[in-house]
Amino acid sequence: MPTPHISAHKEDIASTVLMPGDPLRAKFIAETFLKDVRLVNQVRNMFAYTGTYKGKKVTVMGSGMGMPSIGIYSYELYKFYDVKNIIRIGSCGAYDPNLKLFDVILVSKAYSESSFAKTMGVSNRHTLPASKTLNNKIKRAASKLEKHLNEGVIHSSDVFYRLNHEAYKDIFRKHQTIAVEMESFALFSNAKALNKKAACLLTVSDSLVNQEETTSEQREKAFTNMMEIALESI
Ligand code: HPA
Prior knowledge:
By secondary structure, this protein is of the alpha/beta class. It has helices at 23-33, 67-80, 116-119, 132-144, 168-175, 184-193, 216-221, 224-233, and strands at 16-19, 35-41, 48-53, 56-61, 85-94, 104-111, 127-129, 150-156, 177-181, 197-207. It has a 5-stranded mixed beta barrel, surrounded by 5 helices. Helix 2 runs parallel beside helix 6 (184-193) and helix 4 (132-144) crosses helix 8 (224-233). The radius of gyration is 16 Å and the shape is globular. It starts with 15 loop residues before the first strand and ends with a helix. Hypoxanthine (HPA) binds next to strand 5, strand 9 and strand 10. The site of hypoxanthine has 10 residues, from strand 5, strand 9 and strand 10.
């Protein structure tokens, strides 16, 4: 039952999907953590792999960068593949000076200037929550693995490169957003529109406060804490 952007058969996609932004990170997770793995989508190289983790069927699929991209893939997964839960596992830039590189954040709510929710007709609000049910499962998984989670509101931005670097300070102050990424608000909009569940775990890959950064290779491989928490939560 292919869609315009996913060629997998319906039964090839699990009811829970983990979504990193980068399709190569999906490949890394599948090859590192899953058993009986099959590549089930490669349209536009947006790889999706389905396998098992501790006996549970799970799909790991790239979302691409930005709200339009995750908006398309998450909508098709929820609507046409009967996916019930999507857990985004991504990277973010820290707004909060207390966050360090590689800290893991559990998103409670996503704030965005984006018109995504309004345009799709789901909400006029600019802040949308993650699923409480999924977040509770993720918190239980993290405490079982004795891994620390920073819970907070994040900023889903449409813009990565800003002319005014200092503009983040106003958003941090006004909306108490501890970090910035570019996808959660669209994912949470789709979950709300289609009565599904969505959550988001983020690893700090850079800081707007002190301009620290990680390499793309570190980003691909070093986010294992977040991956293990997400997998354990299913
Ligand atoms: N801005 C937006 N998205 C991001 C960032 C950032 O600094 N880092 C990782 N994802």
